[in-house]
């Protein structure tokens, strides 16, 4: 026979439940809270709960929506400390900084050419695999993009639509004009990360950095000499071919290199001074 009083006491006694806290595991990724798990699950489910009220674009994460909204507001809170450019997000600022320090972390696995941004590497890599469909009708050159062909055509027809307002020099494309204008403003955006020397153009920085690395990528095919810059190699080639393109306007003496002509012309100046 059951003891009803004992049963009643057992029913009314507080229930002790031992709860052990374990992190939630989901697809080899561990989370210590439910919110983190829910956020992660969106990557699997394709759930995009954050919607832009300006253009109806949707996002998985709130932080991505916040960054996107800056397109509409024009807000650019990440300011470059070397120039006046600003950006909507930090990764773009980090990428931009490479234009100043010459850092090129993305290397082509076909030819070793380095790039500051991955998107430029991707475009370049297509040049190894993609056929050059855009061929110039005036010479034998071909290009992988239509825009490159358009720039090239301007060299033939003399079209230079981008003109400097300071000296009226004109260029085939806008980036060349922007680079040129720094000569007038004295702006030097490209800084060497070895000695902090600055340059107005990126090409000058690249050449300068070879003074630190001792790199001489332009090799003569006739002898074992190598050069830091291509113009120096071209000038050197004339010593093999005998080509002398630089002519003195005082005595008609000719030289293979311009620097030798300049040195020679000073001899005429000294004659006048005597």
TrEMBL record:
Keywords for this protein: DNA-binding, Metal-binding, Nucleus, Repeat, Transcription, Transcription regulation, Zinc, Zinc-finger
SMART domains: ZnF_C2H2 (SM00355)
Record-linked Gene3D superfamilies: Classic Zinc Finger
Location(s), subcellular: Nucleus
One Pfam family in the UniProt entry: zf-C2H2
PROSITE patterns (alphabetical): ZINC_FINGER_C2H2_1 (PS00028), ZINC_FINGER_C2H2_2 (PS50157)
Sequence ranges assigned to domain C2H2-type in this UniProt record: 50-77, 78-105, 106-133, 134-161, 162-189, 190-217, 218-245, 246-273
GO cellular component, one term: nucleus
GO terms assigned for molecular function: DNA-binding transcription factor activity, RNA polymerase II-specific; RNA polymerase II transcription regulatory region sequence-specific DNA binding; zinc ion binding
Membrane-spanning segments: none
InterPro entries in alphabetical order: Znf_C2H2_sf, Znf_C2H2_type
Task of the protein: May be involved in transcriptional regulation.
Similarity comment: Belongs to the krueppel C2H2-type zinc-finger protein family.
Protein name: C2H2-type domain-containing protein
Source organism per UniProt: Meganyctiphanes norvegica
């Amino acid at each position: 026979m059951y003891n009803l009083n004992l049963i009643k006491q057992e029913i009314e006694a507080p229930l002790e439940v031992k709860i052990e806290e374990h992190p939630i595991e989901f697809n080899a990724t561990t989370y210590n809270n439910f919110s983190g798990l829910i956020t992660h699950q969106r990557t699997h489910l394709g759930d995009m709960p954050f919607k832009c009220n300006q253009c109806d674009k949707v996002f998985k994460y709130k932080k991505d929506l916040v960054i996107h909204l800056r397109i509409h507001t024009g807000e650019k809170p990440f300011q470059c400390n070397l120039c006046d450019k600003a950006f909507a997000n930090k990764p773009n600022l980090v990428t931009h900084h490479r234009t100043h320090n010459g850092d090129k972390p993305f290397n082509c696995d076909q030819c070793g050419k380095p790039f500051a941004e991955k998107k430029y590497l991707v475009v370049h890599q297509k040049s190894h695999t993609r056929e050059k469909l855009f061929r110039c009708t005036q010479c034998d050159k071909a290009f992988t993009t239509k825009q490159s062909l358009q720039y090239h055509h301007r060299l033939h027809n003399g079209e230079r639509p981008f003109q400097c307002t300071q000296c009226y020099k004109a260029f085939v494309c806008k980036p060349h004009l922007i680079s040129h204008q720094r000569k007038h403003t004295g702006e030097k955006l490209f800084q060497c990360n070895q000695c902090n020397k600055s340059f107005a153009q990126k090409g000058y920085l690249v050449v300068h950095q070879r003074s630190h690395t001792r790199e001489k990528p332009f090799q003569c095919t006739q002898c074992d000499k190598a050069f830091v810059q291509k113009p120096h190699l071209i000038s050197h080639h004339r010593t093999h071919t005998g080509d002398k393109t630089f002519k003195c306007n005082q005595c008609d003496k000719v030289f293979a290199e311009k620097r030798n002509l300049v040195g020679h012309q000073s001899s005429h100046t000294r004659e006048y001074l005597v």
